[in-house]
User: Fold this.
Amino acid sequence: MAFNGHQREDENIDGDETPTKQPRSDKEMPDNEAAAPAGSDTSDRRTSNSTARLRSDSVKKTRPPFPWFGMDIGGTLVKLVYFEPKDITAEEEQEEVENLKSIRRYLTSNTAYGKTGIRDVHLELKDLTLCGRTGNLHFIRFPTHDLPAFLQMGRNKHFSSLHTTLCATGGGAYKFESDFRTMADLQLHKLDELDCLIRGVLYIDSVVSSGPSECYYFENPTDPDRCIQKPYTLENPYPLLLVNIGSGVSILAVYSESNYKRVTGTSLGGGTFLGLCCLLTGCSTFEEAIEMASQGESTRVDKLVQDIYGGNYERFGLPGWAVASSFGNMMSKDKRESVSKEDLARATLVTITNNIGSITRMCALNENIERVVFVGNFLRVNTLSMKLLAYAMDYWSKGQLKALFLQHEGYFGAVGALLELLHPS
Amino acid sequence: MAECGGLHSSTSRHTMDKSITLPPDEIFRNLENAKRFAIDIGGSLTKLAYYSTVQHKVAKVRSFDHTAKEATGDELYEISVQEEVTARLHFIKFENAYIETCLDFVKDHLVNTDTKVIKATGGGAHKFKELIERKLGLRVDKEDEMTCLIKGCNFVLRNIPHEAFVYAKHADSEFRFQTTQPDIFPYLLVNIGSGVSIVKVESEDKFERIGGSSIGGGTFWGLGALLTKTKRFDELLQLASKGQHTSVDMLVKDIYGGSYGSLGLTGDLIASSFGKSATADKGFSKEDMAKSLLHMISNDIGQLACLYAKLHNLSQVYFGGFFIRGHPVTMHTITYSINFFTKGEVQALFLRHEGYLGAIGAFLKGAEEDNPNQYSWGENYAGSSGLMSVSPDMNPMQRARSGTFDMLEMDRLERKLVNLPLLQDASSYIPDTVDLAEDALAREYWLYCFEEALDGVVKRALASQPDMPEAAERAEKFRQKYRHKLQTLRHQPFAYGSLTVRSLLDTREHCLNEFNFPDPYSKIKQRENDTALKYYQKAVKSLEELSWEERQFALVRGVLAGNVFDWGAKAVSDVLESDPEFGFEQAKRQLEERPWLVDTYDQWFERLKGPPHKCALFFVDNSGVDIILGVMPFVRELLSRGTEVVLASNSSPALNDVTNGELQILTESIAALDPVIQAALTEDRLTLVQSGSSSPCLDLSRLDKVLAMVVRERKTDLVIIEGMGRAIHTNYYAMLSCESLKMAVIKNSWLADRLGGKLFSVVFKYEVPAAGPDSPALTPS
Assistant:
């Protein structure tokens, strides 16, 4: 039947089975969701933990063939999650086709792929049970502009011969659908990015039990000396505001796994930070930009309240250290000439981060939500922004709002896509 | 943040330009009597405010005592020109570079002032404090910037009709002016200086800064200067207006290949500002980067403004600050952003005098003991520059020059002006029938028409002051000033708010007054009043001989024929000029036969068969035949029916319209001839009130408070509006909560043509408001 290392005959059966869960156009989605949101959720969870033979049989039947991928093609980065089964039996090993084996070895034995592909080893989730199989979940990313190289690799490794379903979300799933078909002979199963994001967040938070807590916050965010990262339990998470900071920003109000709305978004996101940094400093990577920012001083670039009023603007309760005008000092030629690239990078980071904080806070007030979870790759290696956000939420809301963060920052969309492969909603 | 204070650093290196010579006739006027100074110094512009008294000539009429010897001829009254002192506010805006020259000039011309203090606001106030104190010898007293801004905003919203406008880049008229709301509160003011302040204003004294953003004008300027190596704010805007943001920004379609359908995000939306510039190996044009930056900042401010408006449930959102200040580019991007984020539910509003708010507010802070808010104020079109278009296509240097001295003058009106209590919906009332800014054909015609008529007006003005030798010079100055205004309006129809026939007429009156021609038609009015009065008794007698039915029609025809006598209409003034004997009977023959162009006479006639009205308010028009032989007999009939009559006439002269002063004398003279009028006056059933206006047109939302009181007290149930200016150019569509009668003869062939009629077509529009409990039912015959 539908084993992982299937033969040609199996594929036919597989092909007969999968359509029942696959033909899911975007238009059908709302109906599906409305029909069985809670039910399918619980049964999914149970099956993944079940050891009962009967269930195991049924799981086997609906279990898709390996390899299991989830993909999120964003404006800047492609996020890929890969499940590496560790419970492969000798029989399976033997049956496993060579192409599949080669892909598995390539992905798991390297931490970098080509010039720009990177596996975030520290995020790897070990001994995860998914669909009755145990294995490791790997988190890989590469720039969207290198997608052609990725497709070329897929072609070289005869990925299409595996006849797997490639679940993909993010705008690129739509934009590059035909490239996948023509360049790599792959048919994408396209998924809504916000559905995937929420599913991914809830799933990862529920399965991570060992190691550092998935969800965390900063204690004493307004006191730099005592500000420390603390684990947070996302039980009863609803309602929550989910702020996804990728190239741009989406802000979602989430009331349950299937009940959410996109409140608003802003085009001032991670892409803006990097875009402006590249123009202002000549850097070319996010890591470089963040590194520069960490060494700069934004107060040389920004005009603060105290620069104008000599101290606090008491009448309106504005502290002297608050930024009055981002890049405001750069109106002056002398000051333009005296700032460093690092200062500019820092100011860009602070500007973008504070603005996201400000819009988020307004949304939280308008939606009457007190918990905010920030995700997205803008926060990767970016403790600076996280602390700023934690501070801004706490300070301007007078302690009413809590900023929460997740370890797997930018991978939730891809995880959601993988889950869709395993448990179609 | 609201401050523009951040800007002075970048302009500090501007050298003081002392070579400029100031034309004293045109700027810093009336400094002799100036007092109560205020100054608002921003990043690049200084706004100086002062209060002064203006002495100018007014025409007065005084009844002759016919028993005494002074009566020299048959004249009813004598005309005298007297000096009158009125209060005026002056606001002058100029570049900071000229501040020293200007302060010197002010010092030299300041004569009679006991002022010790100058109120100051704005980020530059501190920097120039010492200079001001040294030059003017006044103590600088600093006022909170935001408080000044809000005070100024309240003041202009309350006193200047058409202050606020919506900006629509691609519409026929870019500026769509809003009707002044009876209640201006609450509103949101988003001030975009170097940072952004978002202020909620709940009443005159209650406001709160509810939020703000550090991404503002300073971000555009500072970041823009870094990215494009362009130093000036104006030049950055100019770059932005030429750029393509799509080469720098990552759009939804760059990520999705198309739209993100399920969220309703179209492909052209910006997903990530500067998202495409995240690369080291590609260059971007200055224009494209500036455009992208402009979009980023405008969208961000718009989004925050919407979030705050939503949270506080506010729908009036005004934008100001140097980022906006008349720049079409930023007004457009902010408008776009607000439309996007509120799905059109909230409109971005801008202010015509936005740049003056701080100065006005600072001035008001210093003038509190004069209670300026107790009065009504009116924009003086003659002394104010009007809104200048700052099109980015113009050379920025040129622009800076043309905007060097911008002025706003406001006259204190003698009376507090209020709404007519009988307006059906004061908040939606628009006085003017045609907005010439939107109607290009009409605009062209009327501008041409007023220019054509200018020679005649100049001639008339001269003739009114035969004994004054310098009149010729003043008349010439008037001609130049008004012609210049017309030229300005041809290019910038939005300069003074909605361009209308009324505003063109009012501007002319303001210019005439400015050059001391308070009443060019005084002598003509006098002569015509004298002549018409001679025929009064005869006219009344012939009407009394008619049957009731015939008389009602004859009375209406009389009003209409009387209304033909109008020096304001070229077609008529030509006739009157060439044939001074042109009479009432001839005028009747000119009238269109029924059915008239607009003809509801039958309904009116039926109504007259019913019970009398309680009280009629009659807005009268011209002197002479019109008021004496047309209106008075009509009024007499109403009085005879048992209807009280309130005659509302202009407070000050406009064309040959009868003024309240003249009407007092005329009515007394008529009363001496006619016991019916005499009795009505004695019994207080006939009352004369002034309208508060000095316009040939009529704005029912700005009327004398006393008039409104009388109307209320007398339970007025009929409003009669007579004449082309009051019933056609304005109020043609005005909806009243009681019965109304609009009567006019169309004395302009172009307008007649427009309305589908011909010269001397008649508009007789009798209207009854949609049936309510109070509206009287028509009595069946």
Q: What stands out?
A: The CA atoms of residues 749 and 759 of chain B lie 5 Å apart. Confidence is low (pLDDT under 50) at residues 1-19, 391-403, 773-781 of chain B. Chain B has 25 helices and 25 strands. Chain B touches chain A through 69 residues (CB under 8 Å).
